[in-house]
Amino acid sequence: MTVKSMSHSPTTKKEVVAAFRTREILAAARRLMEQKGADALTMDEIAQAAGVAKGTIYLYFQSKDELVQALLSQVAEAIAHDLEGILAKPDPPPEKLRQVANLLLDYVDRERTLFPVYLRELVRSKSGRASPLSSLQESEERIVALVTQVFAEGIAAKQFIPADPRLMTFLLKGLGRAVGYYQMTRDQKDTVQEALPVVLTLLFSGIVLEPETPPEETTV
Prior knowledge:
The protein has about 220 residues and is mainly α. It has 2 domains: about 15-60, Orthogonal Bundle (Arc Repressor Mutant, subunit A), CATH 1.10.10.60; about 65-205, Tetracycline Repressor, domain 2, CATH 1.10.357. The protein is built from 9 helices and no strands. The chain has helices at about 15-35, 45-50, 55-60, 65-85, 95-110, 115-125, 135-155, 165-185, 190-205. Helix 1 packs across helix 2 (about 45-50), helix 4 (about 65-85) packs antiparallel against helix 5 (about 95-110) and helix 5 (about 95-110) runs antiparallel to helix 7. The longest helix has 24 residues, at about 15-35. The radius of gyration is 22 Å and the shape is elongated.
């Protein structure tokens, strides 16, 4: 009697081609968005830039909104992956918080093209209006949970002020969005570099507790 292997089936050629096509289409869309913005983008242009027929692109993305959802999901996955890397380090909570703030603002800077779309769709998803980008809330919640863990660690270690760690997370994310919005309206490329030390000062002066110093010994 032969025993069937319990290992996962190997990736098929069709799946490899689909993954490759998806990456090519998303990369082409990102390049075009950086040139002309998301709103002016058309599926025809994306297909041409990706080197595929217009009909082919609809095999992978049914609409431009769905394609933009995939781009936002890419960024969210990258942020979550990087946050998990920070959490896995043995660094003390204040150092982790510094790294998290740097990370979030770095993504605000790198994803300046997608940032206006992110803000608009975040409002749509939270308002309860139907949106093909409704899964954005799921990605947001994953990121919130990871950052909240950093604050919870700091509070447990008595290195952060005793407050709601989830509230702290939203305050930090709010600072990041404010920097992104300012950058978007002012079109200044050095906004994040200027804002980072201010954000860190606000965090560390308002959240991080100074280590207690032992009382000096008195000589008799």
